[in-house]
């Protein structure tokens, strides 16, 4: 064990680092917005499809409705952040996510379900864009912590995924497909508990004065960032296909609901821990490079069930989960490396818009393919989109400089 002045200096430096607890608190908002609001639908999809007599295209449409809401939320965030603070929009978005989680199960009518999924998407877009902005602002003077904090924030979806698996799968297994409305209510209750801390903390984050004012500094530098914008679009379409249909693929191949919960839990735990695994890359690599590498690893996770046996689903979930949300964290790092603080909020909203568009197209296109040639075809589409996301950042990488 080290001792003496060097050890004392090292201990002092470590103690001076800001705590990661604020990032953890804010990551709970991603557990609600993404883990419960978006990805838990994969667990309910087989039950709702059976009880409501849907085909795969109809089932995929509900995630597309959610994604279209996300498009609207991302576009409105881009406009609203001229006038509204990021923390206020974050709080409203999280409240909207909570309301729609509980309200989704009130009716089985497709128009009602579509409207609730769309409203949930609007709230999730506000939470993602503004929450990531709050994290970047909170750690703006701590570059050595910024990567870990950003990865932890986006990895919060893993908490929601695990919580959804434990709450929803046993309920549907015991009470049958007709219990899907109660499953949505359960998700709402879990979401309420998870939202208390981030809602409180968001009001305490001090935003830079420049971010509260309208951004009048001209258009964003898309000549440098455009390739990553396109990659983010492709990644969004690819990852949401996997998370929408992987549970249905598992059920179609005869695995039990207990195995499904286990796979789902592995996925959630891997997502939650991904920020720590990638903390060095997020702290030191250029954002474009991190984006490409993490998409390559997600691609391997997508291919695992297609090229192996059903037992490879556990490997797939671990590999996919350990990398998939690092793409969003890499975008946040890219923005922070290339733009001043006053422009972070709107830039994140713009990237969220590209993400939302890709995620809107993915599920309905994959559902149509699944109806024609089976769920393997949907996963192959996911793999192709991941491959595009791997290659695009290398065509025009953004120059790295500190903001």
TrEMBL record:
Signal peptide: none annotated. Residues 23-401 form the Major facilitator superfamily (MFS) profile domain. Keywords: Membrane, Transmembrane, Transmembrane helix. Coiled coil: none annotated. The keyword Transmembrane applies. The chain crosses the membrane at residues 20-41, 61-81, 93-113, 119-139, 151-173, 179-199, 225-250, 256-277, 289-307, 313-335, 347-366, 378-396. InterPro entries: MFS_4, MFS_dom, MFS_trans_sf. This is YbfB/YjiJ family MFS transporter. It comes from Stenotrophomonas indicatrix.
């Amino acid at each position: 064990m080290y001792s003496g002045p060097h050890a004392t200096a090292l201990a002092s430096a470590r103690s001076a680092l800001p705590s990661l607890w604020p990032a953890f608190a804010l990551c709970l908002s991603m557990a609600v917005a993404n883990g419960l609001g978006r990805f838990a639908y994969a667990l309910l999809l087989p039950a709702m499809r059976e009880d409501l007599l849907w085909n795969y295209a109809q089932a995929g449409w509900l995630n597309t409705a959610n994604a279209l809401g996300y498009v609207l939320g991302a576009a409105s965030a881009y406009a609203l952040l001229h006038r509204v603070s990021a923390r206020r929009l974050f709080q409203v978005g999280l409240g909207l996510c909570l309301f729609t989680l509980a309200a989704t199960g009130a009716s089985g009518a497709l128009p009602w379900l579509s409207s609730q999924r769309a409203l949930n998407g609007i709230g999730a877009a506000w939470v993602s864009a503004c929450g990531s902005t709050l994290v970047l602002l909170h750690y703006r003077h701590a570059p050595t912590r910024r990567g870990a904090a950003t990865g932890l924030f986006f990895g919060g979806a893993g908490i929601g995924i695990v919580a959804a698996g434990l709450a929803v799968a046993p309920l549907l297994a015991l009470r049958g497909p007709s219990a899907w409305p109660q499953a949505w209510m359960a998700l709402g209750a879990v979401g309420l508990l998870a939202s208390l801390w981030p809602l409180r903390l968001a009001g305490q984050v001090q935003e830079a004065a420049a971010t509260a004012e309208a951004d009048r500094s001209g258009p964003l530098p898309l000549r440098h960032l455009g390739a990553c914008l396109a990659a983010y679009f492709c990644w969004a379409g690819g990852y949401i296909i996997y998370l929408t249909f992987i549970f249905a693929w598992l059920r179609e191949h005869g695995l039990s609901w207990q195995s499904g919960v286990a796979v789902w839990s592995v996925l959630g735990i891997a997502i939650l821990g991904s920020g720590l695994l990638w903390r060095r890359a997020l702290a030191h690599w250029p954002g474009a490079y991190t984006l490409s590498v993490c998409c390559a690893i997600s691609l391997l996770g997508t291919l695992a069930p297609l090229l192996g046996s059903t037992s490879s689903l556990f490997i797939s979930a671990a590999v996919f989960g350990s990398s998939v949300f690092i793409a969003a964290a890499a975008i946040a790092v890219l923005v922070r490396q290339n733009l001043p603080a006053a422009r972070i909020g709107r830039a994140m909203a713009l990237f969220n818009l590209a993400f939302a568009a890709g995620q809107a197209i993915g599920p309905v296109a994959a559902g149509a393919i699944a109806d024609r040639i089976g769920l393997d075809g949907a996963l192959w589409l996911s793999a192709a989109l991941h491959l595009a996301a791997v290659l695009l950042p290398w065509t025009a990488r953004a120059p790295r400089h500190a903001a």
